[in-house]
Specification:
Elements lengths: L13 E7 L2 E7 L2 E6 L2 E8 L3 H9 L1 E7 L5 H8 L14 E3 L5 E3 L3 E15 L2 E13 L8 H12 L12 E3 L5 E2 L35 E3 L2
Antiparallel strand pairs: 1-2, 1-5, 3-4, 4-9, 5-8, 6-7, 8-9, 10-11, 10-12
Helix pairs in contact: 2-3
Cofactor: Fe(3+)
GO molecular function, one term: FMN binding
Family: Belongs to the rubredoxin family.
Length: about 220
């Protein structure tokens, strides 16, 4: 099966945030869609072991900040390749607090939509949350960032990661170019820092695009 065919599906790229007791967390995502018009409803699909999933499940609110096509690679790296269990991602980020308490990313975004969860559906490794829109605002003009633009213009820059792996080899996802660094692990998925790729359970999936281990290749 050629899972690279999934790259041909059209998506945007977004930062999904939620809040718990005043603490923000979020991540970059492409699985965002409008599910209804009256009332306006947004759907997001989130991996169950993601910290933001925990926040949304507990507090029933989320926000979607729409990335502009001028968004830099570093912004994608900051929100997509770091763990909110280890650091506060909202530090050094320009944002405003919305009506739901969620952080709305205001730099390099076109606008943001806030939602209150009205339903949730199990999707095996993920949950699909449906949220009624309670607030929406535009920050700037421009064009939204698409997944195709990300693959062409941004993901090459994301390959330039810091070397932290020591003697342990890093592995790259052939679908989205996420790099598994053994020194960092994948704490959001229960993989502790210092875990070699070979020791990761076969049930583990890429935290960005959710393909399995067979779609990773070692970095030279």
């Amino acid at each position: 099966m050629d899972l690279t065919t999934l790259n041909e599906l059209t998506y945007g790229l977004y930062i999904i945030t939620s809040v718990d007791q005043g603490r923000c967390n979020g991540f970059t995502a492409d699985a965002v869609f409008q599910a209804g018009a009256n009332p306006p409803t947004i759907g997001v699909c989130i991996k169950k072991d993601n910290l933001t999933h925990d926040f949304i499940s507990k507090n029933q609110v989320f926000a979607v900040s729409i990335l502009a096509d001028t968004a830099p690679a570093e912004l994608i790296r900051h929100w997509g390749l770091r763990s909110g269990r280890q650091e506060d991602k909202c530090v050094d980020t320009e944002y405003k607090t919305g009506a739901t308490g969620c952080h709305l990313i205001t730099k390099d975004t076109l606008g943001a939509i806030e939602c209150k969860v009205i339903n949730a559906f199990d999707a095996v490794s993920h949950t699909i949350f449906l949220g009624e829109v309670v607030s929406a605002e535009t920050f700037s003009g421009g064009e939204p960032l698409t997944y195709a633009q990300y693959r062409k213009n941004i993901k090459p820059a994301l390959k330039q990661t810091d070397s932290k792996g020591g003697a342990m080899k890093k592995y790259r996802c052939v679908v989205c170019d996420y790099i598994y660094d053994p020194a960092a692990g994948d704490p959001d998925s229960g993989i502790a820092p210092g875990t070699p790729f070979e020791k990761i359970p076969d049930t583990w999936v890429c935290p960005i695009c959710q393909v399995d281990k067979s779609n990773f290749e070692p970095l030279d």
